[in-house]
Specification:
- It contains ten helices and no strands.
- It is mainly α.
- The mean pLDDT is about 90.
Length: about 160
């Protein structure tokens, strides 16, 4: 990776971090692109080199939040996974819901269920599909292997 690509990645990361900080406190609707660029210390016009709109930015922040949740849930359920794997998914769901209920930006995403469910299905997929497969292997879940994908998608809608 060249110097310019590294700089682009750092700038994009700063914009995402700034958006997360602002949207976490005030919600997506109240966040302004100018606030995000000022917080990230980049020019206003630079924003459009990385994102099409504030909605696009909010969607990509959601992707980052989902990935972070997935990784944190792996850590939070590491010990219980060995002794009682049936509790991994309910604990993970509870942790995500607790965080979602406390954050103003989740209110915006909750009003866009197609966006939210699509991104959660994809973003949490590696974690959730692993847990479903583990439950099948340990004979805790009675789901046929060919129904795992559909079960995962349905679980995300629920």
């Amino acid at each position: 990776m060249g110097r310019m690509e590294k700089k682009r990645r750092r700038t994009r990361a700063r914009l995402l971090e700034a958006a997360y900080a602002i949207m976490s406190q005030s919600g997506v609707d109240a966040a302004k692109i100018q606030d995000v660029t000022e917080y990230a210390d980049v020019g206003f016009g630079t924003f459009y080199n990385y994102f099409k709109s504030k909605d696009d930015l909010a969607s990509q922040v959601l992707d980052c939040v989902i990935d972070d949740f997935g990784r944190r849930n792996v850590e939070a359920t590491r010990e219980i996974r060995a002794s009682n794997p049936a509790l991994v998914m309910p604990i993970s769901i509870r942790l995500v819901m607790r965080e979602a209920m406390r954050s103003p930006m989740w209110q915006w995403w909750a009003l866009r269920p197609d966006l939210l469910v699509d991104r959660m299905t994809k973003g949490f997929g590696p974690f959730g599909l692993r847990d479903l497969e583990d439950g099948i292997t340990r004979k805790i879940l009675k789901i046929s292997r060919e129904d795992v994908e559909a079960s995962w998608t349905l679980l995300m809608w629920v």
